[in-house]
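Re: the 411-residue chain
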Amino acid sequence: MIINFITFASILQKKSAIKKFHESILKELEKHFTIRFIDYTEIHKLSETDFKIIFIATGGVEKLIVQCYENLPRPTVLLADGMQNSLAAALEVSSWLRNRGLKNEILHGEIDPIIERIHTLYSNFSAQQALKGTRVGVMGTPSSWLIASNVDYLLAKRRWEVEYIDISLDCIYEEFNNISDDEVGQSCANFASKALACREASPEDLIKGMRLYKAIKNICEKEQLKALTLSCFKIIEQIGTTGCLALALLNDEGIIAGCEGDLQSIFTLLAVQAITGKTGFMANPSMINAKNKEVVFAHCTIPIKMTQQYIIRNHFETESGVGIQGIMPTGEVTVIKCGGECLDEYYVSSGILIENTNYINMCRTQVRIKLNNTTDYFLKNSLGNHHIIIQGNYENAIHNFLHANSCKRVE
């Protein structure tokens, strides 16, 4: 981990003495990080991808920092160990920045919390960099029932630098019709051979589903999409197959793919991957037991890599095409949803996946999760329908990132 210390010191202070005065804290930090000292006059030479901390080495630097205001990293992190009046200067600078709406914090005090905080800040920075410039394909339009899941494209781009791109379903149909059954025959055989079982779906359904997967993948490559959300039910009406297989395989390959044109959920999947590196399962809360703090989540597709085994089914609501019944491993999970039209709200809770259920009147992949928090949120303050489930406990990491980006936690 490389940290660029943008160093501010009084012109009265000899540069050769700076490291000596702060030897105690610098030695400890250099055990954990690679530190590059950058004089404040060269701040403009650093790029957006460089992780930066303002190192206040002495007092009397307030005016110098004001002069560099436009080039300061956002948010601004100030490191001051207190030597050479550095903390006094940091406090003055922090107040000045805050009065101008620039979020900032001061790192000072015990070394272990400082090191831990730098790790968190670096993780947040890396996640932000991963989101920047992401192109999300909106293939078709959101399902009509997603009345609370809209996103303002312009505000999302301003806040997160994520760009939503509208793509007509006609483009998919054209690609789909250009792919022959023979082109996907071997892929279908490979997929079927690894399944635990194949129930309702026919070989013809599997071939159609695989052709749709290839069609969407081709469009992602042409449009340079990192993610997409698909208007699944309109696809069924037009070409007689579901997007369940396509979305499962695309997620496995690192192209983040979501259902029903849900704009908020596809961003949640993107954010989760940026923060944790994990692929998510997008699902409906289908049954809640408030007393036991349990929720059953269900949907008809899931990334195959998240499962221990999978069964090839048909799509639950339409009884057509290919659906995926995934069997997930039990253990720690995190449930998350980002909401709001400018994606500035979120819910997150860790929990334990305790059972893969098999209700006949729910979508194919079903999991029962015992939350570490209460279920009150779902019935009293929910951000909407779809939620994302990832394996492992990442509640703190997700909260730290979204809170740092001025998002409101809903509970």
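The chain has two domains: 2-131, 134-409.
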